[in-house]
């Protein structure tokens, strides 16, 4: 009788350990997504300053400037949990930013503008931090996904509604490249 009770207690304790590991992994993935979101917000906040600086030099390049603003707004409008849609929107924004920086080649005064240079350097830093945040999120998502799919934790995950996370991936190969900024 005591052996049977001992086995039941061990199984329950093991189930609790698995459950707590799943909760920990889910929280790590949510915290990692929050890190990406913060960096994307920093980039989105920097874009209006960059646009205003470029506007003074490239007034006739209105289409490119409007595209960057439109794509920034679209990226910010994506629902918080929709990782795939956010990745796609951010990829398009990165492409538009690349076009914006290509405009600087046609305007030597803009390239020499200290404000533009500082904004460009800030954007490069943020792009690097976004890349690091993406890697961290994808690692946290991978760890959660392994636990959700592995036996015996998949039994606990199924019982308590744990699900796999999408990776923050960019589908289009051209979108994967960080905008090239050459002066």
Can you give a write-up of this model?
It contains seven helices and no strands. By secondary structure, the chain is mainly α. Helix 1 (2-55) packs antiparallel against helix 5 (114-149), helix 1 (2-55) packs across helix 6 (153-160) and helix 2 (62-77) runs antiparallel to helix 3. It starts with a helix and ends in a 7-residue tail after the last helix.
Can you tag this structure with a few keywords?
de novo design (two linked rop proteins); 183 residues
Main sheet specs: none
Radius of gyration computed on alpha carbons: 23 Å
Number of strands: 0
The CATH architecture = Up-down Bundle
Q: Give the fraction of residues assigned to helices.
A: over 70%
Taking pLDDT < 50 over at least 5 consecutive residues as the criterion, the unreliable ranges are none
Order of secondary-structure elements: HHHHHHH
CATH superfamily: LemA-like domain
**Please, what is the average pLDDT?**
83
Number of domains: 1
- The amount of beta strand, in percent, is under 5%
From the helix content, strand content and strand pairing, which structural class follows?
A: mainly alpha
- Assign the CATH topology: de novo design (two linked rop proteins)
CATH classification class: Mainly Alpha
Helix count, DSSP H or I runs of 4 or more residues: 7
Straight-line distance between termini: 79 Å
Tell me, what's the shape? rod-shaped
């Amino acid at each position: 009788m005591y052996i049977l009770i001992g086995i039941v207690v061990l199984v329950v304790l093991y189930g609790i350990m698995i459950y707590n590991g799943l909760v920990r992994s889910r929280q790590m993935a949510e915290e990692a997504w929050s890190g990406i979101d913060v960096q994307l917000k920093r980039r989105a906040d920097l874009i209006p300053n960059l646009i205003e600086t470029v506007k003074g030099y490239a007034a006739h390049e209105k289409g490119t400037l409007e595209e960057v603003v439109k794509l920034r707004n679209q990226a910010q409008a994506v629902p918080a949990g929709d990782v795939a849609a956010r990745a796609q929107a951010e990829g398009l924004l990165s492409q538009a930013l690349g076009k914006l920086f290509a405009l600087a080649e046609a305007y030597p005064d803009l390239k020499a503008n200290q404000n533009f240079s500082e904004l460009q350097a800030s954007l490069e830093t943020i792009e690097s931090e976004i890349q690091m945040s993406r890697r961290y999120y994808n690692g946290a998502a991978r760890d959660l996904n392994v636990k959700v799919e592995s036996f015996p934790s998949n039994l606990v995950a199924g019982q308590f509604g744990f699900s796999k996370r999408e990776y923050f991936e960019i589908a289009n190969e051209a979108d994967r490249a960080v905008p090239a900024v050459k002066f």
